[in-house]
Amino acid sequence: MVTQIPIILASNSPRRKELLERAGYTFTVMPSDCDEATDIRFPKDMVMELAGRKAENVYKKVCTDRAGTEAETQPFIVIGSDTVVALNGRILGKPVDYDDAYNTLNSLSGQTHNVYTGVSIMYYDGEKCRTKTFYENTEVTFYPMTHEEIVGYLATGDPFDKAGSYGIQTQGGLFVKGIKGSYDNVVGLPLSRLYHELNEMLCGQ
Ligand SMILES: Cc1cn([C@H]2C[C@H](O)[C@@H](COP(=O)(O)OP(=O)(O)OP(=O)(O)O)O2)c(=O)[nH]c1=O
Fold first, then answer.
1. Site (Important for substrate specificity): which residue positions (predicted)?
2. Does the annotation mark 97 as catalytic?
């Protein structure tokens, strides 16, 4: 079953919040404000690095808030996460503007790409902190998209806060021919993997 230890989701993403709610966890949300600039080229390394930075940023804030209070020695868990799309090894994050989103969707049209989500769990057990970081990769194949379809989808505004300029869970899902791997991972958090990794971490204390 899901743990009763307080969880803090280090994220601004409404999708991650919805996913974690669906799993039945009780948690609070505290977005990170860490620097996300990086020269890392490999998608799996990049998402694990950024997930780790987000979790650590929030972990430190929680420790500062709790210092000197009776909550100081109570266990808690922080979860940070990061998602990117990779097409033939090229990383496609959130679009910087309209043209970037158009070009991204045009390049994904009729192709198979990978969606990587990194997850970092930091667990303070009342004495010490342990960290576990992993990633999950889902293969996604798109139908060919026409210019009109891309322009129409961009007009909805949906692509602009999403890695790869689409949401599989929204209208972007209409262009998805098939996936191999976890659907939740594409939306931003590989739930069943997270559940098992977290349980393993809590059992191994
Ligand atoms: C590919 C894809 C991405 N996404 C979203 C998930 C993430 O919210 C976003 C990738 O950006 P991220 O930088 O991973 O996350 P974020 O900035 O939204 O939130 P935070 O850093 O505070 O946790 O793209 C979808 O919602 N659906 C999809 O199909």
1. 15, 83, 169
2. no
Q: What is the pLDDT of residues 7-63, one digit of tens each?
A: 999 999 999 999 999 999 999 999 999 999 999 999 999 999 999 999 999 999 999
- Ligand 1 binding pocket, CB closer than 6 Å: 11-13, 15-16, 31, 54, 81-83, 85, 94, 115, 162-164, 166-169, 172, 186-188
The residue among 11, 24, 186 whose CA lies nearest residue 81 is 11
Mutation choice for ligand 1 from 8, 9, 13, CB with most ligand atoms inside 8 A: 13
Q: Which CATH architecture has domain 7-203?
A: Alpha-Beta Complex (3.90)
